[in-house]
Write a structure and sequence with these properties.
- The protein is an alpha/beta fold and 198 residues long.
- The chain folds into two domains: 1-52, no CATH class; 66-195, no CATH class.
- The protein has helices at 88-91, 93-105, 111-145, 156-159, 166-172, 174-187; strands at residues 33-38, 44-49, 64-69, 73-77, 82-84, 148-152, 191-195.
- A five-stranded mixed beta sheet has the order 5-4-3-6-7, covered by helices on one side. Strands 1-2 form a two-stranded antiparallel ribbon.
- α2 packs antiparallel against α3 and α3 (111-145) packs across α6.
- The longest helix is centred in the middle third of the chain and has 35 residues, at 111-145.
- The termini are far apart.
């Protein structure tokens, strides 16, 4: 990857790609590593590893916020704010079930089965991307508004053993939400703590 041109071994022409960050000049990047991968739905991705300067710490707000996670409301803050649970998987469950039924009826090894499998993977990707976007927006807003973020410490892996709540808990994405809070607090100079639920 040099000068904004991506070349793969044993290919004659450069590999065309769509750049996702319009504010960053791709021609100025000198990535240390490039990973080309293919998702289950047939999409190809090129991932670059570059050295970047650490961002400036956010201004101190003098405000601390506690976060209580739940299923009915995704999160309730100590300020009284309720973040609604978008239930991404539940909203797409009927479409997913239809695609999976079509996949089950297809003959193994056939072209129609490959198409059906791609549709199932595409539906799962849409759910995953919508959930990730929601978690990024929620975690970024909390990190910007509070100098100290305290989040409920839950045993998520133990909670998903409950058959009645396993799908709803997995759909929330609490583990990913906590991971995002941790790295964003470290990145922007905030304090992050885990509290024990009562």
């Amino acid at each position: 990857m040099r000068g904004g041109v991506l070349r793969l071994a044993k290919t004659d022409a450069p590999l065309p790609f769509v750049w996702s960050w319009p504010d960053v000049d791709v021609t100025a990047l000198q990535p240390a590593m490039v990973i080309v991968s293919r998702e289950a739905d047939g999409r190809w991705y090129a991932t670059f590893t570059v050295d970047a300067d650490a961002p400036e710490p956010l201004e101190e707000t003098g405000h601390a916020v506690g976060i209580d996670l739940g299923v009915k409301d995704f999160a309730v803050t100590s300020d009284g704010e309720r973040i609604a649970n978008p239930r991404h998987l539940e909203r797409k469950a009927r479409n997913l079930a239809r695609y999976q039924r079509r996949l089950a009826r297809c003959q193994r090894g056939s072209a129609n089965r490959a198409k059906a499998r791609s549709k199932v993977a595409r539906a799962h990707r849409k759910v995953r991307d919508a959930r990730r976007d929601f978690l990024h927006r929620a975690s970024t807003r909390l990190v910007r508004s509070a100098g100290t973020v305290v989040i409920e410490d839950l045993n998520i892996s133990g909670m998903v053993h409950n058959r009645r709540l396993a799908r709803a808990i997995s759909d929330c994405g609490w583990g990913e939400f906590r991971r995002q809070l941790e790295y964003k607090c470290e990145r922007y100079g905030r304090q992050q703590q885990a509290g024990t639920p009562r």
